[in-house]
Amino acid sequence: MNIMNNLQDMYIAIPKGRVMIEAIPILEEIGLIPEKSFFDNNSRILQFSTNKKNVKIIKVRSFDVATFLIYGAVQIAIIGSDVLDEFNHSEIYSPIDLNVGHCRMVVASSNEILKKENPLEWSYVRVATKYPNITKKHFEKRGVHAECIKLNGAMEIAPKMSLCRRIVDLVDTGKTLEANGLIEVEEITKVSTRIAINRTAYKTRFEEMIELINKFESINNEK
Q1: Which residue in 41, 60, 89, 212 could disulfide with 64, CB within 3.0 to 4.6 Å?
Q2: Four-point Cα dihedral 20, 22, 26, 31, nearest 10
Q3: C-alpha–C-alpha distance, residues 221 and 223, integer Å
Q4: Buried b (16+ CB within 10 A) or exposed e, 186-222
Q5: In the beta sheet, which residues pair with residue 189?
Q6: CA gyration radius for the chain?
Q7: Which alpha helices (DSSP H) does the chain contain, by range?
Q8: Across the strands, what pairs with 186?
Q9: CA–CA distance, 220 with 132 (Å, rounded to integer)
Q10: Which segments of the chain belong to CATH 3.40.190.10?
């Protein structure tokens, strides 16, 4: 399955959005500075050079980060543990928690529905979520059959549109749930940002990989 990049460059994948914003200071701490266009929100460029001649960065969607990593197109990634858990792929090794990007994955529903239903008595649920694999596993542990409707966004509006009665999504402050009339039912897992690596690259380019990994690890040791 692995299609390791034939070039000698080391590629790091970073997801767009919140994780990318939090990743910038981390890159600076390990002495890795992306080119100026990386910081241009209007730029459509997805691949960037850095101050290190052989280290490149790509900027893609969070779930695409995992795909690039699995197939060896990139060797290292800064990625949320939610994405890692959803893919749960043997080719990804995730040795370092960067201790940033903290949030939680929860089950949520509306107050109207919860007045009529006891979550402890659920035997079948239809759930809108970006994380069908995590969701199904969570409910299976409770003996509940979960029918998952895959959405990439706008989860909170799904119950209002009668698409489902429950959602599984990430929450930080919970304000988005509240604004859309939803209540947290239970927490599935805590989420943070991690360093993940391609296992084949770790074996075939060990010295390069371990040098970068040690730099990321040193950040945690300083905290």
Answers
A1: 60
A2: 50
A3: 6
A4: eebeebebbbbbbbbbbeebeebbeebbebbbebeee
A5: 105
A6: 19
A7: 18-29, 62-70, 81-87, 111-116, 132-141, 175-179, 199-204, 206-222
A8: 107
A9: 31
A10: 10-101+192-222, 103-190
CATH of 10-101+192-222, one of 3.40.190.10, 3.60.15.10, 3.20.20.70, 1.20.1250.20: 3.40.190.10
- CB distance 4 to 200 below 8 Å: yes
Q: What is the pTM of this model?
A: 0.90
Q: Which has the closest alpha carbon to 212: 38, 59, 25, 75?
A: 75
In this structure, are residues 129 and 85 in contact, taking their beta carbons and an 8 Å threshold?
no
- Residue 131, both tokens: 């994380």
Tokens 């266009």 locate to 37
Three-state secondary-structure class, residue 40: coil
Regarding the domain delimited by 103-190, which CATH topology (the fold level of the hierarchy) does it fall under?
A: D-Maltodextrin-Binding Protein; domain 2 (3.40.190)
Report pLDDT digits (tens) over 132-178: 999 999 999 999 999 999 999 899 999 999 999 999 999 999 999 99
Average pLDDT for 40-49: 91
Rounded to 10°, the helix 206-222/18-29 angle is: 100
